[in-house]
């Protein structure tokens, strides 16, 4: 699905690189955790994988095609769905409206289908009353569920999440991770999650650790 070829990144000088010559492969139908100490470059890596920034060296390919050839705007609109710690929902809209907007922007095949959006929110545990409310009136766990539902109604084959459980308690964390597993195993998407939490990493099919400027596989999907 997605692979990096000799990927490298640095912010100021090349000699202060965060990582270099990184070759990683991410497959459809699996979830992956990216772990490593604070400041090691995890967020930077997923920003590149999500097409939010360009590599300084090497390249990233989706199904064998360089992201630069696809075009980062097209890639972000059609191929990747992003979940942030801070939810990044449209705060002046309801949960249903957030999903409807995402489907419209990404040209999802379910564009305009309100029942589909509501069914997805229901599946993720939101009540009819909650999905009509302005999202700011929902709890953190409920807002993160809306953000995840948003990735599920879009057709993007790739889901990238940066600390998606950072603001959640243990129960909500477990539920959110179970949802990511469903997205990978039942919808056949490729899910990549940056996390500080060992319990979250443990539940993913693959674990990649960034240390000493190198990414290494701690666990590879079966
Ligand atoms: N825009 C920027 N300009 C310069 N340096 C930056 C910028 N963004 C991040 N950095 C530096 O790059 C390094 C890697 O940052 P990054 O956020 O990718 O790490 P991380 O592993 O995700 O950290 P954390 O676990 O704390 O979120 C850090 O030392 C950070 O200070």
Task: Summarize the entry for a quick read.
The protein has helices spanning 42-49, 67-70, 72-78, 95-105, 114-123, 128-132, 140-153, 170-185, 198-203; strands at residues 2-9, 19-22, 25-26, 31-36, 57-62, 65-66, 80-84, 158-162, 190-194, 206-211, 214-219.
CATH topology: Rossmann fold
Looking at CATH, the homologous superfamily is: P-loop containing nucleotide triphosphate hydrolases
Strand order of the largest sheet: 7-8-9-4-10-11
Assembly annotation: single chain
In angstroms, what separates the terminal alpha carbons?
16 Å
Rg, rounded, reads 17 Å
Order of helices and strands: EEEEHEEHHEHHHHEHEHEE
Our count of helices gives: 9
Query: How would you sum up the global shape?
Result: globular
What would the average pLDDT be, to the nearest integer? Answer: 93
Estimated helix fraction: 25-40%
User: Helix/strand/pairing class, anyone?
Assistant: alpha/beta
User: How many structural domains in the coordinates?
Assistant: 1
Number of strands: 11
Low-confidence stretches: none
CATH class: Alpha Beta
Proportion in β-strands: 15-25%
CATH architecture label:
3-Layer(aba) Sandwich
How would a crystallographer describe the biggest sheet? 6 strands, mixed
Bound molecules: adenosine-5'-triphosphate
Describe the structure.
With 222 residues, the chain is of the alpha/beta class. It has one domain (2-219): 3-Layer(aba) Sandwich (Rossmann fold). Helices cover 36% and strands 25% of the residues. The chain is built from nine helices and eleven strands. The chain has helices spanning 42-49, 67-70, 72-78, 95-105, 114-123, 128-132, 140-153, 170-185, 198-203; strands at residues 2-9, 19-22, 25-26, 31-36, 57-62, 65-66, 80-84, 158-162, 190-194, 206-211, 214-219. The chain has a six-stranded mixed β-sheet, with helices on both faces. Strands 1, 2, 3, 5 and 6 form a five-stranded antiparallel β-sheet that branches. The longest helix is centred in the C-terminal third of the chain and has 16 residues, at 170-185. The chain starts with a strand and ends with a strand. Residues 11, 18, 36, 38-44 line the site of adenosine-5'-triphosphate. Belongs to the ABC transporter superfamily. InterPro entries: AAA+_ATPase (IPR003593), ABC_transporter-like_ATP-bd (IPR003439), ABC_transporter-like_CS (IPR017871), ABC_transpr_LolD-like (IPR015854), MacB-like_ATP-bd (IPR017911), P-loop_NTPase (IPR027417). Residues 2-222 form the ABC transporter domain.
